[in-house]
Design a protein that fits this description.
Elements: H1 2-21, E1 27-33, E2 41-47, H2 49-62, E3 72-78, E4 87-88
Antiparallel strand pairs: 1-2, 1-3, 3-4
Length: 89
Amino acid sequence: MFKFLALMIIIGGFSSCIAERNPESAKFNVYFWFPGERKEYYLGLAQGLDQCGVMARKFANSKGLSGNNDWGYICCLKTSTSECESKHR
């Protein structure tokens, strides 16, 4: 019984690691930069890499930057051990 429980804990931990790294289901902290600024603004937490880009574009549009390509954003992979394990776009 103990071996079974230990195996289930290992499998559960492994599957959560896989989910953390799947770009469609992983959580990403979203950061935004205005044109000409180096300061980053935290927009929130997105579920999936696509949603991260959507959040950044919506924020840019809300600030009147829809036709301006000088703004930027970054998606930081959030894991159980890091707020920004890796950066994506």
